[in-house]
Amino acid sequence: MQFQYQIEGGNFSRAGFASSEIKKLMKQLNVDLSIVKRTVVATYEAEVNIVAHAYGGTIYVELDEEKIIIKLVDEGPGIPDIEQAMKEGYSTASSTVREMGFGAGMGLPNMKKNADDLKISSEVEKGTTVQITMYFKTEK
Amino acid sequence: MSTKYFHHALKFRKEVCIGCSHCMNVCPTQAIRIREGKAELTDNYCVDCGKCYRACPVGAIIVEQDDFNQIFRYKQRVALIPSVLLAQFPEEISLTQVSSVLMELGFTHVYEVEHGAEVLKDLMREYINENGENKPLMSTFCPAIVRLIQVRFPTLIDHLVLLKAPLDVAAAYYNQKLIEEGYKAEDIGVFYITPCAAKIAAVKSPVGQEDSAITGVINMDFIFNKVYTAVKQGFIGRNSCQLPQLDPMKSCGVLWSATNGEASSMPGRTLAIDEISNVIEFLEQLENEENKDIDFLELRACDESCAGGILTSSNRFYTVERMKKRAASALKKEQEKNYRYAAPGPILQYKGFLEENIQVNKIQPRSMEKLDEDIAMAMKKMKRVHEIMEILPYVDCGLCGSPKCSSLAEDIVQGQAQIEQCIYVQKRLEQEGELSGKDSLELMQKIWGKEKFLQNTSKEAKK
Fold first, then answer.
1. Which terminus of chain A faces fewer neighbouring Cβ atoms within 10 Å, N or C?
2. Which of B149, B287, B383, B404 to mutate to test the interface with A (most CBs of A within 10 A)?
3. Domain interval for residue B54
4. Beta-sheet strands, E only, within B48-161
5. Domain-located, residue B363
């Protein structure tokens, strides 16, 4: 099954909507709760990144019995050095964004920690695509 | 398949229900449907918050109550009273007077529930400090919230503080105290005067405990009426001189069940949230962002916490004000080192004993959002739900007998409803000539009952 959610850049009051929807889908599928938790944390992080940095974006969700692929495509400044951005503490957030509790530089590392598979591609001044894959097999 | 997880204290009386759907529309877990003109409860979704009880205009929803006379099966009859009870009454009515009415009703002992907090407070603080990896820790004080987390927010279950509530601690203490005084365990009955339905459900089917130290539950409105009648008829306090003096209540105990009562006693950054919709909104957000900055969350299902319990009689804002006044006066005495108030309460002499049994077992998730246990089947059902949602109008009018379009879609997929119940679908089908006016009337009658579709004249004739 496929789903699509639009994200508005700069509007933090709406951030989290798509993550909540994805969470609901996974709960309906009776996916193991620890997997739901990790998915939501990773997706929310990625969603907030788009709101914080990009003009806007789209989340494409693909869901089957074994896995969920969440592809977040934004139009924005892009990430010049992905390797550097993956390091804890690295942040380009403005002070306003930081005051709202975002932009501590834990975004990408936290996403990587929670996702089963994370792919990031980016083109400067065009945008970034983040792809999170989660497998539903119960972890024991 | 349909294992019943919870005992419910809320009962729907079919013979009184007029099928008005007020309850269905306020239920925060979408647990109510209308069928054949009557409200029906889906047991496993209900968390006993009592919103439906308040919304019902005809009193069709009742709170189950143990027969009062059962107390006389015991030689020692303990009334466990929460501080909300005394705060139901104007300040002229004293704790001694309320107790004297309870004694006249047949109780042999009166004890205040929140003494349990004197033992619990430090343990909770320790628990929070020791379980930092599960921050924010969430109180298990309100049983409706514990159930809400089980059914709606199962991913947050590890955050619950696995310690008993003051009620359980107080009951265990008083039982033990009487046993040590030489009474036989089987002669002791401990009865809780409850301000809400969720506490009844928690006593009857405790979550995370094998059994409860509480023998029975008496609804607070029953006691309120007895006390008020006694006041109005001038009987109150006639025997008060025979009353043993009650242990003085600490200020933190008086306010424990009020909003911020627990949170204000806990370390670090704390938040207190009351009213179940507020709690749902907050938890929904918390599930997304994994907030580690908050140490403790106090969550209560009722507005103004227990002062707003559905079995209370006084206006909740007056109740809270009276509780605050009582707490302030207790605090003053504590600070003045009043000998009775400043000393550790008698319950603390049993600290070691009480601590042994204060842990609650791991609380199990009971997710009610899953469409099926089997993921392949759930996937099929989910596809079907989304196909149906394409047809439904997203109006959430409730005319189909389900509270929302999405709940109708799920009901259809689970085989409990049909799509023609939707009035919009009916109109479309009628227009296409696929449904007659008579058929559509019959469909609506099946949901709302025949009576609602009688013409005014025949309706009146029926009366």
1. C
2. B287
3. 1-64
4. 61-63, 76-81, 109-112, 137-138
5. no
Say whether residue A38 is in contact with chain B using an 8 A CB cutoff: no
Q: What is the DSSP string of B169-204?
A: HHHHHHHHHHHHTT--GGGEEEEEEESSHHHHHHHH
The count of residues in chain B is: 463
- A76 lies in some domain: yes
User: Are B118 and B214 found together in one domain?
Assistant: yes
In a domain, A140, yes or no: no
Give the pair of three-digit tokens for residue B336: 């003045």
Regarding whether B22 and B120 lie in a shared domain, the answer is no
Q: pLDDT in tens for each of the 463 residues of chain B?
A: 345 667 788 999 999 999 999 999 999 999 999 999 999 998 888 999 999 999 999 999 999 888 899 999 999 999 999 999 999 999 888 898 899 899 999 999 999 999 999 999 999 999 999 998 999 999 999 999 999 999 999 999 999 999 999 999 999 999 999 999 999 999 999 999 999 999 988 888 777 776 778 999 999 999 999 998 988 887 665 555 566 678 899 999 999 999 999 999 999 999 999 999 999 999 998 988 777 789 999 999 999 999 999 999 999 999 999 999 999 999 999 888 877 888 888 999 999 999 988 888 888 888 888 899 899 999 999 999 999 999 999 999 999 999 999 999 999 999 999 999 999 999 999 999 999 989 999 999 999 999 888 876 555 555 4
- What CATH number does the domain containing A111 carry? 3.30.565.10
Same domain, B275 and B349: yes
Q: How many domains does chain B have?
A: 3
Residue in chain B nearest A68 by alpha carbon: B379
The three-point CA angle B201-B219-B226 to 5° equals: 175
- Considering B12, B41, B64, which residue would you say is the last residue of a domain? B64
CB-based contact, B390 to chain A, within 8 Å: no
Q: At B431, list the tokens.
A: 């227009």
Q: What ipTM did this prediction achieve?
A: 0.81
What single letter denotes the amino acid at residue B169? V
Closest by CA position to B112, among listed B93, B131, B84, B89:
B84
Q: Which of B155, B379, B386 sits opposite A29 (nearest CB)?
A: B379
A50 to chain B, closest Cα gap in Å = 15
Is B350 in the same domain as B456? no
Taking the Cβ of residue A137 and every Cβ of chain B, the question of whether any pair is shorter than 8 Å is answered with no
Quote the number of domains for chain A.
1
Q: Is residue A85 part of a domain?
A: yes
Domain of residue A62, residue span: 2-135
* Claim to verify: residue B292 and residue B423 sit in the same structural domain: no
The C-alpha atoms of residue B193 and residue B218 are separated, in whole angstroms, by 5
- Please state, in angstroms and rounded to a whole number, the distance separating the CA atoms of residues A70 and A60: 6
A30/B284 CB distance under 8 A? no
**Three-state DSSP class for residue B83:** helix
Same domain, B219 and B316: yes
Q: Are B179 and B45 within one domain?
A: no
Tokens read off for B395: 């109006």
Instruction: Answer yes or no: do B295 and B329 share one domain.
Output: yes
Whether residue A24 is contained in a domain is answered as: yes
